[in-house]
Amino acid sequence: MSTFHSGIWSNGKARKFTPATVSEARNSELAQASVAAGHQAIKVNSPAPEGLDERVRQVLEIVELGTPCTIRSLARQLKLTHFHLLHLFKQQVGMPLGRVLTKQRLCRAASLLAQSNIRIKEVAYQVGYEHTSSFARAFQRQFGMTPQCYREQSRSQEKLMKSA
After folding, report:
1. What is the pTM of this model?
2. Domain span at residue 107?
């Protein structure tokens, strides 16, 4: 089984999770998980580690709330240049802020695709993508399948679980 990065930080570094620890996180009331074809995407709210700059803590809290945002809007909110925010975040968390924001958006999209009948174009817009084609490419890179295939697969898995 492979490991993957999630949105939980430990000692300023991205923590790796195995499928066993993902199932533990699923039990948390603030955790959201989407599972399709063995690919797992998760967003978990956990306290930021001690020793981080207060501005980085604020960014982590905003990201974990799931509110769509941009690097520039976060930088404006914290009264930093976007370059300074990017540098500070990468230095303290060990992962680029853009990657964290993209994963958060795509995890939210996966959840919407699996749990609703919202059109894919609307899902893309709700998670912050202006163009459906950009969303579809990013989604395929993250999950190894198109948003439509992901939705179909999650529905077929749901039917299997109900019939069992």
Report:
1. 0.66
2. 101-163
